[in-house]
Amino acid sequence: MIEIRKIWHYLTRYIDNFLLTGILILMVIGLIVLYSATGGNITRVSNQVINILIALVIMWLVANIPLQQIMRLALPMYMLGLILLIGVAFFGEINNGARRWLSLGVTRIQPSELMKIALPLMMAWYFDKHEITLRLRDYLGATILLLLPVLLILRQPDLGTALLIAASGFYVLFLAGLSWRIIIGLGTAAAASLPVLWSVMHDYQRQRIMTLLDPTQDPLGAGYHTIQSSIAIGSGGVVGKGWQNGTQTQLDFLPEQSTDFIFAVFSEEFGLIGNTVLLLLYLLVIGRCIAITANASTQFTRLISGSITLTFCTYIFVNMGMVSGILPIVGVPLPLMSYGGTSMVTMLLGFGILMSIQTHPKLVKT
Amino acid sequence: MKQHVELRNHSVELHKFRMRLTISAGFVLVLFLLLYARFYFLQVVQQEHYHTLAEANRISIAPLVPYRGLISDRNGRILAQNYSAYTLEVVPSKIQDLETTLNELAAIIEITSTDRQRFKKLLKESKRFKSLPIRHRLTEVEIATFAANRYRFPGIEIRAQVYRQYPEKEMVSHVVGYISRINDHDLEQLESNGELHNYRGSHHIGKIGIEQSYEKQLHGITGFEEVETDAAGRSIRVLSRTPPTPGNNLILTLDLGLQEVAEMAFGDRRGALVALDPNNGEVLAFVSKPGYDNNLFIGGIDQENWNLLNNSIDRPLNNRALRGVYPPGSTFKPFMALAALELGKRTAEYSMSDPGYFSLPGVSRRYRDWKPGGHGRVDLHKSLVVSCDTYYYSLANDLGIDNIHNFISQFGLGRKTGIDIEGEVSGLLPSSAWKMRQHKQKWYAGDTISVSIGQGYNLTTPLQLAFATMIIANNGKAYLPHLVKQIQNSQTGEIEDIPAKLLYSLNLKPQNLEVVKSALVDVTRPGGTAAKAGANADYTFAGKTGTSQVVGIKQGERYNEKLINERHRDHAMFIAYAPAENPMIALAILVENTGTGGSTAAPIARQVFDYFLLGKLPETDLAHLTDPIKNHVHDHL
């Protein structure tokens, strides 16, 4: 008996139960919807279960790492990520017109995935180091840290990932206290440069943008998914059509249904009521993450947890926005629900860090 | 400057951080509310719109292909139009056993082996869930038969289709061109032009001719609709519809009546004729014989017909008027004559004695005139009227190739005219620089001699010759030749005129033009090489005959038409404009492998002018106006 209790204690010592519960509920919902979205494909669902288990293990491992260790890993991870990205730029495999993978004999890795966690860690570490005497030029330094991997990833080309990583870095800058004036200044400069950008674009580039903004311009090409998913969501109505009864999604068998567009399946089958519940669940998880962030005791832990939380929100908003037709299609998965191992691992790795921050004894900084 | 280092106050920093965190949280909340509002909109406000009538129904998106613009001649006679018919279409992914199903289908609807072949080919090239046609143009009986048996064939449907049709077939196919199925190359092209979105659901695109060069005008704008369909894919109701915009109609500059007269005048012979309005560059007639039936290409031409057309020795798919290059022969002489006068190398009064040959100083080789013994005393006027070669050999030697090149290229020879269909070639007006570039040799004086009578390296297209003739006819104005006269907006019906475009003007001295042009009028009068064609005309017309050599004759030999393989016989050429004092039409004619310019090509011009100026229709026999092929003997180089 004591043994079981000891094992249980060992397992859950560094796990934040609230967060874990929320995550698990969402994942289970994800599995249920996945079953419907793939038309009852048990193989896919079991694969996803395996993805989930692997990710949970990684989360547990990370949660057990004490904070100082995590902090010490920041710089080496970042350097490793940069080196691998440079490696990809020169030796990367070209797949679908983009260089994203690096072959290392037995396995392939995608360094940009590593960067998703390495960059905020590095920037958080950087700000923590300069916490006492923070000056404007430190922000500059942090921005350079941000730009290096982002530019390399842009070169691949992988605009979506570059933007997401840039966002996660920006959240660190923002939470570290980047002056409002600079933020507004940059924002205005960006807005002002838009008309200039528009005038130098090629016809076909402009057409792509027009289609992004108004999918009905190319309803059977680029706009197809947006229109179809909007229809799917709309046809769910208030109560939804019921599990496995979503006719829009059942008869199409589009592969994207199980990945980026899983939310469309959910909406069609569970309606507005289902969406409300889902949003609340996500909000609860986010709320817990914010609480953890607020209670974090060092600059490093505050910044990294804030970035992880806000990035999590970004994924959710961008995915649901794109599926419901208010944002252009950008290929971002719905965290914890979309089919796929990599995003699951990345998400849970982040949550592991949050848990570590929450459960390890807090250091009191002077 | 003193460095001001602040030590941050810890609790102030913490407070700032918490502030920012709160702001972020608030922002997140706002975004989620935005999402929620969107869901509410789609799932509550638009409930009516998206709610399907039955559980098993779904809403699909379908493109609405626009109605293609019509093409007509300047008088409204239709050259390209659309008509509706029904096809039988198959969605392979919905059928278990394709072969069996097709056999069962063939039992109630006629499906030929050609149909099956074509279908199999499409199957290989398309995705399995695309709807592919197996039979076109179903009859009413077939439609009824299928409808009664439809339940046996899930995955097969009748679709209404709009077809393209070219009623005039061979007569204008080289101008109108055709549309045909969009292939991968077209898709790439559309994608890089940012036009792909406008072609969803379209199967055809202009490939050649006006159908291609004005594709954008003719195609229109694709619409789309949201349709509720049942489980079998049948449309139940339309939820929303963005209608397509039909393509614009094109009114060409061609006069079909004129084209018909020209075609009749040619008879069975191969060749080309291009007629322009010298006041604005409108193309009045554009003949290339033989033509081909462009209707064959619309659905994708079948192998048998393709072989017939492609392997025919007459090369019907060649657009001779646009892309055929021929030595201009003696039609080159008027331009040489103008060059002589404008560059001061000859005067109108200067005359020379023509013994029937010319030799370069110090060289024994003789360049022969076509008339044995020569034409006697020849001045510039006479040289054009009787087409004396010797006059031009001597002139060429005095001018030199580069002067010839620089002056005559102003008339558009050796360059593309820029006409509004694709595929034009530039021909060749040689120069010493060209020869060095192309053959890495220097230019020899002997080369110039043959160029001067329109042989040698000299190559022109009938279109270029017509363009050059136009410039003489209107005293130096180079108008852009164009085939489209007006564009009619399909929605408003408004007609937009395409204005004439003056590319450039030549500054030619009026007295020089007068000398040359009056000589050209005398060509069609007694004593001229086209006197027979010009006899009893009710108007004055000016022209120049030409006989262009296909195969070289050895020194000392004579050209015996009967002995030479038909396809090695000389081409007959003629350039002309009428009425001479105020030209309304300028043309260039080429008849392949037969007769001389005067006997064969000029009479065609006469018939064309008679119709255009007087409305006179040729008698049916007139196609054989030429003298029967006598034992024509020419002395050639």
Automatic annotation (TrEMBL), chain B:
<feature type="binding site">
    <location>
        <position position="354"/>
    </location>
    <ligand>
        <name>Zn(2+)</name>
    </ligand>
</feature>
<feature type="binding site">
    <location>
        <position position="388"/>
    </location>
    <ligand>
        <name>Zn(2+)</name>
    </ligand>
</feature>
<dbReference type="Pfam" id="PF03717">
    <property type="entry name" value="PBP_dimer"/>
</dbReference>
<protein>
    <recommendedName>
        <fullName>Peptidoglycan D,D-transpeptidase MrdA</fullName>
        <ecNumber>3.4.16.4</ecNumber>
    </recommendedName>
</protein>
<keyword id="KW-0862">Zinc</keyword>
<dbReference type="GO" id="GO:0008360">
    <property type="term" value="P:regulation of cell shape"/>
</dbReference>
<keyword id="KW-0133">Cell shape</keyword>
<dbReference type="InterPro" id="IPR012338">
    <property type="entry name" value="Beta-lactam/transpept-like"/>
</dbReference>
<dbReference type="InterPro" id="IPR001460">
    <property type="entry name" value="PCN-bd_Tpept"/>
</dbReference>
<dbReference type="GO" id="GO:0009252">
    <property type="term" value="P:peptidoglycan biosynthetic process"/>
</dbReference>
<feature type="binding site">
    <location>
        <position position="375"/>
    </location>
    <ligand>
        <name>Zn(2+)</name>
    </ligand>
</feature>
<keyword id="KW-0997">Cell inner membrane</keyword>
<keyword id="KW-0812">Transmembrane</keyword>
<keyword id="KW-0645">Protease</keyword>
<keyword id="KW-0573">Peptidoglycan synthesis</keyword>
<feature type="domain" description="Penicillin-binding protein transpeptidase">
    <location>
        <begin position="271"/>
        <end position="609"/>
    </location>
</feature>
<dbReference type="GO" id="GO:0071972">
    <property type="term" value="F:peptidoglycan L,D-transpeptidase activity"/>
</dbReference>
<dbReference type="GO" id="GO:0071555">
    <property type="term" value="P:cell wall organization"/>
</dbReference>
<dbReference type="GO" id="GO:0008658">
    <property type="term" value="F:penicillin binding"/>
</dbReference>
<keyword id="KW-1003">Cell membrane</keyword>
<feature type="transmembrane region" description="Helical">
    <location>
        <begin position="21"/>
        <end position="41"/>
    </location>
</feature>
<keyword id="KW-0961">Cell wall biogenesis/degradation</keyword>
<comment type="pathway">
    <text>Cell wall biogenesis; peptidoglycan biosynthesis.</text>
</comment>
<keyword id="KW-0472">Membrane</keyword>
<keyword id="KW-0378">Hydrolase</keyword>
<dbReference type="Pfam" id="PF00905">
    <property type="entry name" value="Transpeptidase"/>
</dbReference>
<feature type="active site" description="Acyl-ester intermediate">
    <location>
        <position position="330"/>
    </location>
</feature>
<comment type="similarity">
    <text>Belongs to the transpeptidase family. MrdA subfamily.</text>
</comment>
<dbReference type="GO" id="GO:0016740">
    <property type="term" value="F:transferase activity"/>
</dbReference>
<dbReference type="GO" id="GO:0006508">
    <property type="term" value="P:proteolysis"/>
</dbReference>
<dbReference type="InterPro" id="IPR005311">
    <property type="entry name" value="PBP_dimer"/>
</dbReference>
<dbReference type="GO" id="GO:0005886">
    <property type="term" value="C:plasma membrane"/>
</dbReference>
<dbReference type="GO" id="GO:0008270">
    <property type="term" value="F:zinc ion binding"/>
</dbReference>
<keyword id="KW-0808">Transferase</keyword>
<dbReference type="GO" id="GO:0009002">
    <property type="term" value="F:serine-type D-Ala-D-Ala carboxypeptidase activity"/>
</dbReference>
<dbReference type="InterPro" id="IPR050515">
    <property type="entry name" value="Beta-lactam/transpept"/>
</dbReference>
<keyword id="KW-0121">Carboxypeptidase</keyword>
<keyword id="KW-1133">Transmembrane helix</keyword>
<feature type="binding site">
    <location>
        <position position="369"/>
    </location>
    <ligand>
        <name>Zn(2+)</name>
    </ligand>
</feature>
<dbReference type="InterPro" id="IPR036138">
    <property type="entry name" value="PBP_dimer_sf"/>
</dbReference>
<dbReference type="InterPro" id="IPR017790">
    <property type="entry name" value="Penicillin-binding_protein_2"/>
</dbReference>
<feature type="domain" description="Penicillin-binding protein dimerisation">
    <location>
        <begin position="65"/>
        <end position="238"/>
    </location>
</feature>
